[in-house]
Design brief:
Length: about 90
């Protein structure tokens, strides 16, 4: 199971996020670094979410994150590779 350091398990939400200079929101620095290292191409696991604060509110983006990143996902077979690679698996 993943133990995300950026996620508040009690309140079921992220307690730290990353925002880049283009106003894109990321659930953690690992997702931002993956995005940056891939020449700023949208991360595959986030590709179905509009992560831009230019288009969506922070609340809308964080609500989408809560559906993609949570205890059930981290415990299951659909856990994102980046989470497996960078956090305890």
């Amino acid at each position: 199971m993943i133990k995300c350091k950026f996620y508040d398990y009690k309140f079921k939400k992220f307690n730290q996020i990353e925002i880049d200079l283009d106003m894109n929101v990321f659930p953690c620095c690992h997702y931002y670094m993956d995005y940056a290292e891939n020449n700023f191409k949208k991360n595959h696991y986030l590709s179905d979410i509009d992560i831009s604060l230019k288009n969506k509110s922070m609340e809308e983006i964080l609500n989408k994150f809560s559906n993609k990143f949570n205890d059930e996902i981290w415990e299951g077979k659909n856990c994102p590779e980046i989470c497996k690679k960078t956090c305890d698996w």
